[in-house]
Inverse folding.
């Protein structure tokens, strides 16, 4: 690789300093990558569990909803669920995982919540299948919120891992070898100059001695 | 009495013809065998239905058409009107909920957003049939302009609002208006001297109350919410239900073992225990009511055949919806068939 530096002692010192920093940075970044990886894998596992659970439950909920839709006129369903009974307060903050900001969702219900209070309609005009659909949807909601949180974290972490890995690789395979190469080049050049100087001196000494004889 | 019955001669004769055009099992079976919605809809050609691309629109158009036809045929406009009132009450629920939802937004309740007034009411939730114009209902609910509103509606609206003020619970609106609709229907049926309908409504109310009982228990609701949802004009008294409210749902079978509904309750509970679903009971209930309705076919003169035809048509639309929704969503033939009720013919 072409090295474009002036082969001076000053430059050599500078290069060596840079190399030392690069090596330390490389080690740190590698540690960060490993740690991120560990966190990432744990999150991915949780994500998989949650997703499977949510998908299964949502599937069931949608199926009951479909059945409810089949046995009730659309107007009645719309009316039944147009005025939700429970009010959810939702708050999104972020937490720091190894300098990656991942979302943290918190939610709470306004007013006193009761298990039986999720159904916002009267029973006379509605079919029982709607109860199941609403019930299972209510059950799956907290899981869905958690899933959203975990899935976004996984996404952000994976981007960060990707970035860190690229940096580690750049340091390991590009910058560090390059700096080492530069240092070697300068050393060699300096040595060469040293040798040239030495020979020259020897030659001069020889000439001086011949004249003096 | 002779006069009462003979004035029905014309409309009964016409109903007899209309009855023959109701869909029979053969036609429904063919729809079940169809590969998709389009094919299922094809079966409906050469029927009363004006087959279109949108089957929900088709079904609601048919409902409108039937009501228009029967209003024209019936010798007494009150007869069809009392059935239409059910749709008015439904629309009242929608309008009322929309208004309260909107007002609640300002009070820190559910946020309805800054939608303009006309968009606040979900159009899809409104039936476009009824005995009172939708604008009249909307004016009454939104502006308190009740001058054009018939008395039963006015009273029901006031009661629903008063009850809501107390509980601040949207379920109250449903419950009060459902109760009002039933009381109105029963009073009206009794007032017009149609024992057949009084009896039918009583049975329907009973069966709905039984379903409500089981559902309330499943949802973990308490006695007072059950009491609130309890429909009037049934023969089974509220106190009987409340007697067994703290016992497991099976207790209701013993409580009403002597009643007409014992087999339905027992069957329904069996399926409930098997898969936790009440839909079998609801199906059995609809079949039972339809069978009761079938008696109307053998009445020579009187309002019964008209009522029978009207409710049979509503049942038919319900069945078509089950088939078409099922077909549109790729449900299997068995799953759809399991949910089908029965036909009137």
């Amino acid at each position: 690789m072409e090295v474009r530096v002036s082969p001076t002692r000053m430059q050599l010192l500078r290069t060596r300093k840079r190399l030392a920093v690069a090596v330390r940075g490389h080690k740190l970044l590698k540690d960060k990558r490993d740690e991120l990886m560990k966190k990432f894998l744990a999150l991915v596992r949780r994500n998989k569990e949650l997703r499977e659970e949510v998908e299964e439950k949502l599937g069931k909920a949608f199926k009951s909803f479909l059945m409810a839709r089949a046995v009730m006129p659309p107007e009645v369903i719309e009316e039944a669920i147009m005025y939700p009974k429970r009010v959810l307060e939702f708050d999104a903050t972020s937490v720091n995982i190894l300098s990656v900001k991942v979302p943290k969702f918190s939610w709470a219900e306004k007013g006193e919540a009761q298990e039986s209070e999720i159904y916002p309609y009267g029973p006379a005009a509605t079919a029982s299948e709607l109860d199941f659909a609403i019930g299972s949807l209510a059950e799956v909601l907290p899981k869905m919120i958690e899933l959203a949180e975990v899935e976004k974290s996984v996404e952000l972490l994976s981007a960060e891992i990707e970035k860190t890995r690229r940096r580690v690789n750049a340091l390991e395979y590009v910058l560090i070898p390059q700096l080492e190469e530069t240092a070697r080049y300068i050393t060699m050049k300096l040595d060469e100059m040293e040798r040239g100087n030495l020979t020259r001196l020897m030659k001069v000494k020889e000439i001086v001695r011949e004249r003096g004889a | 009495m002779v006069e009462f019955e003979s004035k029905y001669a014309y409309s009964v004769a016409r109903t007899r013809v209309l009855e023959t055009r109701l869909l029979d099992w053969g036609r429904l079976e063919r729809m079940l065998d169809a590969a998709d919605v389009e094919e299922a809809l094809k079966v409906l050609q050469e029927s009363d239905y004006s087959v279109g691309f949108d089957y929900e629109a088709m079904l609601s158009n048919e409902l409108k058409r039937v009501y228009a036809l029967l209003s024209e045929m019936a010798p007494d406009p009150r007869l069809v009107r009392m059935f239409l009132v059910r749709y008015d009450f439904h629309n009242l629920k929608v309008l009322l909920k929309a208004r309260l939802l909107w007002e609640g937004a300002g009070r820190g309740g559910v946020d309805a957003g800054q939608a303009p007034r006309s968009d606040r009411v979900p159009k899809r939730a409104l039936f476009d049939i009824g005995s009172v114009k939708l604008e009249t209902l909307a004016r009454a609910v939104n502006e308190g302009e009740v001058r054009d509103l018939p008395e039963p509606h006015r009273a029901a609206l006031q009661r629903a609002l008063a009850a809501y003020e107390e509980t601040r619970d949207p379920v109250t609106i449903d419950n009060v208006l459902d109760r009002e609709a039933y009381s109105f229907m029963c009073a009206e049926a009794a007032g017009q001297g149609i024992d057949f309908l009084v009896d039918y409504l009583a049975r329907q109310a009973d069966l709905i109350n039984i379903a409500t009982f089981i559902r309330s228990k499943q949802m973990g609701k308490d006695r007072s919410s059950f009491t609130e949802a309890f429909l009037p004009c049934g023969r089974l008294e509220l106190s009987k239900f409340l007697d067994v409210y703290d016992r497991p749902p099976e207790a209701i079978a013993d409580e009403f073992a002597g009643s007409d509904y014992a087999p339905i309750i027992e069957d329904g509970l069996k399926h409930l225990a098997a898969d936790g679903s009440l839909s079998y009971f609801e199906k059995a209930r609809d079949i039972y009511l339809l069978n009761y309705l079938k008696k109307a076919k053998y009445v020579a003169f009187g309002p019964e055949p008209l009522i029978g035809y009207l409710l049979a048509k509503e049942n038919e639309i319900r069945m078509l919806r089950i088939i078409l929704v099922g077909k549109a969503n790729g449900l299997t033939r068995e799953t759809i068939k399991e949910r089908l009720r029965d036909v009137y013919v």
